[in-house]
Specification:
homodimer; 333 residues; alpha/beta; 434 Repressor (Amino-terminal Domain); Rossmann fold; 3 domains; six-stranded parallel β-sheet; four-stranded parallel β-sheet; 12 helices; DNA-binding
Chain lengths: 333, 333
DNA sequence: GTGAAAGCGCTAACAT
DNA sequence: ATGTTAGCGCTTTCAC
C-alpha cells in the first residue's frame, strides 16, 4: 500500500528492519557504519515513516490530543501554538478539537482522543463530566489540564488561579482611589474561568469595603458587548468609577463607548481588562490589563508531556504548575 | 495492550469481529438484531475503537493534516474552527501545525503529515517549496490549498483572489473621492497574500489615475505597527487622503494614531481595513473593511474532503472554489 | 550491535 | 447479512 517501507530501506542498507527501526528511534544505539548506510538508503528512497503503524506497534502514537473550548479564542490559540512548537521538536503532533464550552461535547471528544492512543491528552479547565473523568481514570494516557488551578485535578495541571486575577484587579482599582467598582462579564454562564475572575473581584472589593456591581451578557466577549454592558452599568449605578472586564475585547468596547459618551478615562472612570491582547498598548489611552501566561502554559504542558515520554513520572502521581499572571499598569487606570 | 478490543465486543455480542467492524463503519449494512447486540456490547464493555489500528489496516487514517502559517492568526483560526466542526461529524480529526511563514518548515511538516496517512492534507496558499510539491505529487493523499487563488495549484484550492481585494479597496476609496492613496502593509516580505492585496491596490489606483504610496513594516500586523506606519506615510506624503491597510489590526492602529493627532476620520482621511475582525464595528468611527470568507473556506474544504472520502473524485482532477469577499462600508470611509 | 519472530487491533476482500 | 482470512508497517522482546 505504502510505496516505500522500512523493509525497503533495510534491504537497500543491507541491514534488518529492526535495525532501521532502532536507528530511527535511537540513532546512537546503532553502529556508525550501519547508521550511515541507513541514512543513505532513507535519502535515496525518499522514505517517509508510517506513524500509524508505529503507533499501533508501540501502543502509543506520536499524537497529543488537545481539547480547548474554542480555537478562535486568542488565549487558547497562544497556548496551542506554544505547545505545538515545543512538541514538534520531538516529532509529536497536536490533534486539536474544540468543545464550544459544552461538557457533553468534551466527553465525546475525549473518547475520540483515546481512540488515537495519544502520548497525552490536554484538556482545558478542571471541570469535566463524570463520564469524561471515568474514561480518563481507566486509561493509561497522561492527562494535563490547562488554564485553571484551584479545584480537583485528574492528573497534572498547568495554569493559574482566576480568582486571584479578579482579586488583583479589584486591589489595583482600590489602590487607585476608586470606591465604586463594577465587573463586566461576557458569557460567564459558560466560561467558568471568567466567572471565577468575577467572583474573585467581587470578594476582594467587598473585603476592601467598596461597592461593587456585576453586569453580565450571555454573548461571547466582544467590543460591542462591552459597549452595551457599560451603558447598562452606568444606568444602574451612575457613580461607578472603576471597571474591570472579563477580557480585553470587552474593555475595548468600554473604551470606545466612553469616548462616544465623553467619559474621560481614567479621570472619570478607571478601566482594567484581562488578556493583554495585541491592541491594548496602542489604545487611547493604553489599556491597563492582566496578562495571563498563555504561552508559558503551553510550554510547561509540553515539558510535562516530554518528561513523561522519557519515563520521568510526575512526583506523587499529581503535579500542578502555577504559571501566574502579570498586571500591566498603563494609562486607563 | 488495549483493555477491550473489537474481538471482545464481538464475543460478547455473539458475532464475528468483522461484523462489528462493519457495524461501526456502516451500521445500515448490519441486521437490526445484530446491531442491537453489538451496540449493547459496546456500551457494556465501554469499548473505545482504536483509530490507529483502523488507519493502518485501511491505509488511510481518520486524520486530516492542516498546515497554516500561524494558529494565532484570527483568519486561520476561523478556518480551522469551521473545518474542524464540519469534519467532526464524520469523525475525522484535525492534526494542526504551523509554519510561521517558513517554506522549509512547511516541507518538513508535510513530510510528517504524510506519516499519518491522512485522509487529506490542507495547506495554506499556493506557494510551496519544490520538495513539498514533489512529495505531494508522488502521494495518493488529496491536497487542498486554502486562502489563495490565482496561481498554479497542486490539487484542489479553496479561497479567493487577494489582488481583487486590493482592487476593491482602491476602487472604493476612489469612489469616495480620494485622490492620494496609500497602502500600509505589515510583514509583506513573508505574508504573500498581504503582498498580493497591496499589488492589487497599487495597480487599481494607477489605473484610476490617482497617486499611490506604499509603506511597509517587517513586523507582524499590530495596532502599534499601524500607528507607526501612519506617521511614516504622512511624513513622506502629507497630502494622503485615503488609506488601505493590510489588515484590521493595522487599521485600528491608524485609527488610534489619527485620534491622537486630531486627524478626523473619514473627513480628512478615509480608512479601509481587511479582515472584519471583532472590533471593527465597535470602533470610533466604525471601520470600513473587507470580510474574507474564512469560515466558508473551512466549510468548503471540509466538503471536498468528505466528498473525496465517499469516492466522489474531483472533476478533471483539479478543482478551485472561489469563496469571494465582501466590502463592508462603515463610517471610516 | 544486530536479526528473527511475534504480534499491535483493525479492515477489506472474498466466500458463504 | 455474516464469517474467514490475510495482511497493513511497524516495535519489541529475545537470542546471538
Amino acid at each position: 500500500m505504502q510505496s516505500v517501507t522500512m523493509s525497503d530501506v533495510a534491504a537497500k542498507a543491507g541491514v534488518s528492519p529492526s535495525t532501521v527501526s532502532l536507528y530511527l528511534r535511537r540513532p546512537q544505539s546503532v553502529s556508525v557504519a550501519a547508521g550511515r548506510m541507513i541514512a543513505a538508503a532513507i535519502e535515496a528512497l525518499n522514505y517517509v515513516p508510517n506513524f500509524v503503524a508505529g503507533g499501533l506497534a508501540a501502543a502509543s502514537s506520536r499524537a497529543v490530543s488537545v481539547i480547548v473550548p474554542s480555537v478562535r479564542n486568542a488565549f487558547f490559540a497562544e497556548t496551542v501554538s506554544a505547545l505545538q512548537s515545543a512538541l514538534r521538536r520531538e516529532r509529536l503532533q497536536v490533534i486539536l478539537s474544540h468543545t464550544e464550552y459544552d461538557e457533553r461535547e468534551e466527553e465525546d471528544l475525549v473518547r475520540m482522543a483515546l481512540s488515537w492512543a495519544p502520548a497525552a491528552i490536554v484538556l482545558t479547565g478542571l471541570s469535566h463530566s463524570v463520564g469524561t473523568r471515568r474514561m480518563l481514570a481507566s486509561s493509561p494516557v497522561p492527562v494535563i489540564e490547562i488554564w485553571e488551578l484551584g479545584a480537583e485535578q485528574i492528573d497534572a495541571a498547568v495554569g493559574f488561579h482566576h480568582d486571584q486575577v479578579g482579586e488583583a484587579a479589584a486591589d489595583h482599582l482600590v489602590a487607585q482611589g476608586r470606591r465604586h467598582l463594577a465587573f463586566l462579564g461576557a458569557r460567564m454562564h459558560e466560561d467558568r474561568r471568567a466567572r471565577l475572575r468575577c467572583d474573585g473581584f467581587v470578594a476582594a472589593a467587598q473585603r476592601k469595603g467598596v461597592t461593587v456591581a456585576v453586569v453580565e451578557h450571555a454573548a461571547p466577549a466582544s467590543a460591542e458587548v462591552g459597549s452595551m454592558m457599560l451603558a447598562q452599568a452606568l444606568q444602574q449605578h451612575p457613580d461607578i468609577d472603576g471597571i474591570a472586564c472579563s477580557n480585553d475585547h470587552v474593555a475595548l468596547g468600554v473604551l470606545f463607548a466612553c469616548e462616544r459618551a465623553r467619559i474621560v478615562v481614567p479621570e472619570k472612570l478607571a478601566l482594567i481588562g484581562f488578556g493583554d491582547l495585541g491592541f491594548t498598548a496602542a489604545c487611547n489611552p493604553p489599556l491597563t490589563t492582566i496578562r495571563p501566561s498563555g504561552d508559558l502554559i503551553g510550554r510547561e504542558a509540553a515539558r510535562l508531556i516530554l518528561d513523561r515520554r522519557l519515563g520521568k513520572p510526575w512526583e506523587g502521581g499529581r503535579i500542578s504548575i502555577d504559571t501566574r499572571f502579570t498586571l500591566l499598569h498603563r494609562h486607563s487606570s
